């Protein structure tokens, strides 16, 4: 892939490129700090706490619905669920009319763990993005999509990065 600028666009300066890299570093460091703080206080990863938050916000969700809300693969959500069930934080409830349907609910211990969470349970970056004006968020999305497009030759398509929780990608203590 040619990484040269298009003829109609000026070339970025090294200083402006480094400034953007520094912004990425600060964003990653802030997220890692929050995930470490949450893990230290609760013993749960950021992804697990986000899972709990989604179930708490809408008791009775299915596993597929939680995966969709977290934008992760269903197998990743299933692994999270197993760990949370083993810890006694989430319970599966079979449907009364359709016993094949399993819905999720927090246990009292799950509610307590979520209440102890420092900061937003779904993550500081996610909460921040949800508070941005739509036009700014769209501009950011467009710019990041262009970066990802240019990274295409170096992407590992075997690794489902787009469907992996950020806590898993960033937090070396994550257990999900």
Structure overview:
A two-stranded antiparallel sheet has the order 1-2. It has helices at residues 14-42, 46-57, 63-70, 74-86, 108-115, 124-131, 134-151, 166-170; strands at 90-94, 102-106. The protein has eight helices and two strands. Helices cover 57% and strands 6% of the residues. β1 and β2 form a beta hairpin. α2 (46-57) crosses α4 and α2 packs across α5. It is mainly alpha-helical and 176 residues long. The model is unreliable at 172-176 (pLDDT under 50).
Defining traits:
176 residues; mainly alpha; two-stranded antiparallel ribbon; 57% helix; 6% strand; disordered C terminus
- Average of per-residue pLDDT values: 84
Gap between N and C termini, in Å? 35 Å
How many helices in DSSP terms?
8
Secondary-structure element pattern, one letter each: HHHHEEHHHH
Helical percentage? 55-70%
The parts where pLDDT drops under 50 for at least 5 residues are 172-176
| Strands, count | 2
Shape: elongated
Structural class: mainly alpha
What is the strand content?
Answer: 5-15%
Q: What characterizes the major β-sheet?
A: 2 strands, antiparallel
Alpha carbon gyration radius: 19 Å
Q: Which strands sit side by side, in order, in the main sheet?
A: 1-2
Structure described in brief:
The protein has eight helices and two strands, in the order ααααββαααα. It is mostly helical and 176 residues long. Strands 1-2 form a two-stranded antiparallel sheet.
Provide the fold topology.
Layout: H1 14-42, H2 46-57, H3 63-70, H4 74-86, E1 90-94, E2 102-106, H5 108-115, H6 124-131, H7 134-151, H8 166-170
Antiparallel strand pairs: 1-2
């Amino acid at each position: 892939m040619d990484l040269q600028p298009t003829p109609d666009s000026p070339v970025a300066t090294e200083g402006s490129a480094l400034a953007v890299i520094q912004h990425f570093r600060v964003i990653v460091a802030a997220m890692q700090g929050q995930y470490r703080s949450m893990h230290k206080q609760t013993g749960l990863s950021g992804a697990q706490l986000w899972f709990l938050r989604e179930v708490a916000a809408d008791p009775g969700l299915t596993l597929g619905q939680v995966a969709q809300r977290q934008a992760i693969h269903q197998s990743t959500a299933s692994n999270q669920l197993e760990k949370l069930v083993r810890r006694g934080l989430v319970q599966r409830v079979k449907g009364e009319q359709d016993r094949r349907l399993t819905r999720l609910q927090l246990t009292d211990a799950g509610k307590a763990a979520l209440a102890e969470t420092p900061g937003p349970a779904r993550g500081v970056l996610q909460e921040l993005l949800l508070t941005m004006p739509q036009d700014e968020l769209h501009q950011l999305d467009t710019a990041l999509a262009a970066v990802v497009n240019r990274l295409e030759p170096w992407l590992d398509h075997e690794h489902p990065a787009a469907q992996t929780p950020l806590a898993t990608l960033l937090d070396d203590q994550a257990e999900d």
